[in-house]
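User: Assemble these into one structure.

Assistant: Restating your components, then the assembled model:
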Amino acid sequence: MKSLKAFNLTIFVTALIVAASVIGAEAAPKQKNIILATTTSTQDTGLLDVLIPLFEKETDYFVKTIAVGSGQAMAMGQKGEADVMLVHSPDAEKKFVDEGYGINRRLVMHNDFIIVGPAEDSAKIKGVKSSAEAMKLIANANALFMSRGDNSGTHAKEKTLWKKADIAPAGQKWYQETGLGMGQTLNVAAEKKGYTLADRGTYLSMKKNLGLDILTEGDAALLNIYHVIEVNSAKWPKANAQGAKAFADFMVSKKTQDIIKTFGVDKFGSSLFFPDAGKKVEDLGK
Amino acid sequence: MELILQGITKAFELILAFDPEVLGITWLSLKISGTATFISLFIGVSIGTAVALNDFFGKRVVISLINTGMGLPPVVVGLFVMIFIWRSGPLGFLEILYTPYAMIIAQAIIATPIVMGISLAAIQNLPPHLRLQILSLGASRLQMVWVLVKESRLPLLAAVMAGFGGVISEVGASIMVGGNIKGYSRVLTTATVMESGKGNFDIAIALGIILLILAFLINLMLTQIQQRQNPR
């Protein structure tokens, strides 16, 4: 009996050593890694696929991009699980910085939100200039609206639009929440022939397969603004403050801003984002 | 229909062109899930055999627990592994969240009960007198265990296939603890989720087909070993 137990123990210990050595190999390079928590739109459009390799080449840092909604990205920052955030949910961002979780919030770029829907447009919102008015029409027509429902920047914007239109959509039959990223939500909306609020960048990069049209655009309330925020390392000493600063500086540098300006022109015929480093939020969209 | 054909064409294009990114993703999937299966094999077979061959108080409860573990939901595993290894977690000092190593750990935890449960049943299914016969022929206990493991090689290889199949096709835990980082922790399943989210259905289908081919080839290889005549 004893030898059998010893045999099993040997195997078990060997397995643990194998596991431990595999793990140990990773622990060596420290503070080379930057965890970037960002919105899905920067990844889904392919912008980060262009920018991150450039940054890594320039600085020797390794960026771990975690693409989630802006809400979740800031939740990661709040726990000190991310070093730097590239997000587009201004009200939540202000709160985040005011509460001392983030520092050095800087304007990076903007584009705009659009309300998209099927070409039939049963709620007749095409050409309606005011986004709140368009939301009202959708609600009155009981037309299917797909919400992100994930606390992302787009979801936050959508909620402010409903508020402006004085409508409480939650629980309504025509109002459904996907809980998914922008790309997937656009797919769901296309499949179900519903309306949804999208950022222009993700919409343009996916347009070819969607069959959804832009119905409302150009309202000042639809501005979509991206900021970069560094996690407050005074609060989270484990955060890679240097790396975060290096990445944030990179995002607002002249060279990066020039790349953002032309990104997507060759593929989609127009820019997906407009660089804004150094500008004031109040001056955007004018 | 057109989309499916497009996807299949794209898959072969990507494979035949040896697209470096797709090759990298495929190779990483194989490495991560292979390592995880290997670890689960050590732990699973040894504990499974130990439980099968020993009688102790509460054995049925232990077996029930192992059998329940065979259906461990990957996202739950992912969630707990994440909580343990994030910076503020008890194992945060390892700094392995969003690395392939975190994925190996999560996948090993998913595969281990599968391997354990099947090997336990396999050893228990051997004729009860076999042990006594082997011992009476003068074998040591260690030799006896070795013969028993060899005798149950058919179901044990099935355990490897089940474990490997379970983790290579798993996506929930991998995306949570791996983060789907390009060129680093992006595997076939997480890439498929991302590409379909981006609306690139042709690439998503291509990745899916590559995953199927990979799983088939691995199982073909293991089945060859399993069905070999007289391996002794």
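The mean pLDDT of chain B is 90.
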